[in-house]
Hints:
It is a single chain. The protein is of the alpha/beta class. It contains 16 helices and eight strands. The protein is about 50% helix and about 15% strand. An eight-stranded parallel β-sheet has the order 1-2-3-4-5-6-7-8. It is globular and about 55 Å long.
Amino acid sequence: MSVDQAFTRKLPKTELHAHLTGSISRERLHEIWQVRKDEHSDLDLEDPLLALPTGKVDYDIKKFFPLFTTYIYILVNTIPAITKTTISVLQDFVADGVCYLELRTTPRASPNISKDLYVSTVLDSIARYNGFQDQMSTYLILSIDRKNSSAEAMEVVDLAIQFKAKGVVGVDLCGNPFTSTDISKYRTAFAKAKAHGLGVTLHFAEVLASSSPTELRTLLDFQPDRLGHVICVDESIKEEIAQKGMALELCLSCNVHAGLTRGGFADHHVGKWIQRKDRGKVVLGTDDIGVFLSPLSNEYLLVAHHYDLSRETLLQLCEEASDAIFGPYEEKVRIKNKVAMLRQ
């Protein structure tokens, strides 16, 4: 039986590479903007429906990051806005049939909001939403930005440790890949994260500028559990990744629309990784659904279409994703049981 959208929506999907702020829908941003505009008529921010036109997805990487630093972060910088957008993002993932989510965000301070308060607000929003539904379990990953100092990176790890009991399960390295930095300065921070039982995932080889042999070897020395994107890698790095069995978070639509990969969907490296026998887990991710407008069910539909994958192969990918989660073992069992039920 062929794969269609109805099937990929029913799949018990696991989302492990989704940025909170980048997952906010344009409609929800517009609502936040309208409230701010009503309160402050002199608000100097364009309507999100104009700043991010309906249907536009071709944001190349150099235009992508300014969307956040000069626009979205400024708009979503109050407790009500953070709460409203977090719950909205969770609702969207549930509507798409996601049953397990690890949402990631960079702790950021804004007027009257500390990094500590920001993280606790996101976690409280997750807990509040979880009280209304039992389809999807949500956990949080805190991100270190490439522009952070070593002290700021350690602050992120300390926050992750502080809030571990409330649902923080890992630490990420993200940020503009064109930001030049000595990546080794984060070694101690990630070592501390691992020592406290947190998962480690790294944005890895997104662009050539951040894919020197020195940087990639240094990142691998951090002993990550998962790697995101994995685009600009040579055969020796691929072999090492495969031998170590690291899970790969691969974001098809994001990479194609942002111009991170050459060619279209059919030429994306996710196909070769799926077909490879000696590899770790392959996990499909949306990255920033609010920008690239491709829900996780569509990512599964795209790989099925472009790489001629069967329903059974997609079910196997769902099982693989469950084995890569940072959450408790019981969550893996729950996801696998859902996969088994769909097989019947």
